[in-house]
Inverse folding.
C-alpha cells in the first residue's frame, strides 16, 4: 500500500534551512515503521532532503499532487499550528476520495477539519509529534488500525 505522509515542512525549517531535528526524528521513526510494515510512502520532506534540496512551488506542487493522487491513504500530521500545505493536501485527498487519517492533538480547533468526516473517509488520532506521548510505537499501532484493510472503511 502507498501512504502519503503530509506534515508541516516550511514552519519546521530554521533561518538557514535546517529542519527541526527533534521533529525530524519523530517523522523518520514514523516513516521507518510504515516501511517496515511493508508499505511504501511519499513525504515531501524526504523528497526535498529535509530542506537541503528545496524545490520551487512550480516543482513540488505537481509532484505532491501526483504522489497524493496515486496513494491509497493519506496520514495528515497537523502539528500545533496546522500547516496550510497540509490543509491543501487534505482538501485534495477529500476531493479525490482518498481515505484520510488525521493526527492532531486538537483536530476540533478547525471546524473544517473536525467536520471533514461528513464528506470523506476520515479517522482522527489525538496526538502531536511535538509531544513525547504517544510513543512512536503507540502512534504507529493506532495508525495501523485505520489503514485500508483495517477499520478505515467503517463509519466514524
Amino acid at each position: 500500500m502507498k501512504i502519503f505522509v503530509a506534515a508541516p515542512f516550511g514552519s519546521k525549517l530554521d533561518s538557514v534551512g535546517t529542519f527541526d531535528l527533534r521533529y525530524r526524528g519523530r517523522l523518520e521513526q514514523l516513516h521507518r515503521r510504515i516501511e517496515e510494515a511493508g508499505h511504501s510512502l511519499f513525504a515531501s520532506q524526504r523528497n526535498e532532503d529535509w530542506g537541503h534540496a528545496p524545490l520551487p512551488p512550480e516543482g513540488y506542487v505537481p509532484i505532491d499532487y501526483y504522489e497524493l493522487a496515486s496513494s491509497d491513504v493519506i496520514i495528515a500530521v497537523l502539528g500545533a499550528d496546522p500547516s496550510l500545505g497540509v490543509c491543501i493536501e487534505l482538501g485534495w485527498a477529500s476531493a479525490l476520495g482518498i481515505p484520510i487519517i488525521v493526527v492532531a492533538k486538537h483536530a476540533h480547533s478547525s471546524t473544517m477539519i473536525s467536520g471533514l468526516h461528513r464528506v470523506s473517509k476520515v479517522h482522527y488520532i489525538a496526538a502531536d509529534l511535538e509531544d513525547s506521548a504517544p510513543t512512536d510505537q503507540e502512534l504507529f499501532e493506532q495508525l495501523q488500525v485505520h489503514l485500508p484493510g483495517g477499520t478505515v472503511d467503517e463509519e466514524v
Notes: Residues 2-146 form a domain with the Rossmann fold fold (CATH 3.40.50.450). Confidence is low (pLDDT under 50) at residues 151-156. Helices lie at 21-36, 44-47, 57-69, 84-96, 111-114, 136-146. The chain has one domain: 2-146.
